[in-house]
Write a structure and sequence with these properties.
With about 200 residues, the protein is mainly β. About 5% of the residues lie in helices and about 35% in strands. It is built from 1 helix and 13 strands. The strands form 3 sheets. Strands 1, 2, 3, 4, 7, 10, 11, 12 and 13 form a 9-stranded antiparallel beta sheet that branches. Strands 5-6 form a two-stranded antiparallel ribbon. The longest helix has 8 residues. The mean pLDDT is about 90.
């Protein structure tokens, strides 16, 4: 097993105040941009098909959830606690989009154009397979932190919510393992990637 404590140190430059941010989406399996320094939160689009979702809620920021993974201790006839097993884990992120335009509504609710106007939505909209990058930007240091899922199952999780400063259109994306992301030395497939401030540095 690798020793992941090697290199740990105090680094004040790695602190991120995620006051501002953006969500980028693309078709499932889309690779990261080759130069993440171009992934500015104000960019409408970035190479390889990434599109900015636009304005999202400041009152309800993107929220990650990790559920499952409960430990169970197994006993043998000879002794107690000889092995520990863990339940499967689900990792997801919930986002509140704000733009009440046709493109955003079709994306969030998997809708389609209605011939007489508006966006039509089924009673049980099917999940969509997407890739997603969530980027937070520290306005003081201009450093970024992000998360990348190349294969996520995404579905609307609420009807329009009028209780905040702007109407919110919520959806949740659940991470799935991906062949686009590098597997571990033991062959374990990854479901998401953390993007550190160093990853966003301009390419030399």
């Amino acid at each position: 097993m690798a020793d992941n404590t090697t290199g740990l140190t105090i680094n004040n430059q790695s602190l991120i105040n995620g006051k501002r941010g953006a969500v980028f989406v693309a078709p499932a399996g889309t690779a990261l941009p080759t130069d993440l320094s171009r992934l500015l939160i104000s960019a409408a689009s970035v190479e390889t098909g990434w599109k900015n979702l636009g304005h999202t809620s400041e009152n309800n920021l993107p929220s990650w959830d990790r559920s499952g993974g409960d430990a169970s201790s197994l006993n043998s006839w000879l002794a107690e606690g000889v092995r520990t097993t863990y339940d499967s884990v689900t990792v997801s992120v919930s986002v509140k989009a704000l733009q009440a335009d046709a493109e955003t509504l079709k994306f969030v609710y998997n809708g389609w154009d209605n011939e007489s106007g508006g966006i039509a939505v089924g009673m049980n909209p099917a999940a969509q397979e997407i890739a997603m990058i969530v980027v937070s930007c520290d306005p003081d240091t201009k450093k970024n932190f992000g998360t990348y899922m190349s294969n996520a199952s995404m579905k609307a999780d609420s009807m329009p919510d009028f209780s905040g400063d702007f109407v919110e259109f919520g959806f949740t994306a659940t991470a799935q393992t991906s062949d686009t992301i590098t597997a571990s030395d033991t062959g374990e497939k990854a479901a998401f990637v953390f993007l550190t401030p160093n990853d966003f540095a301009p390419k030399a």
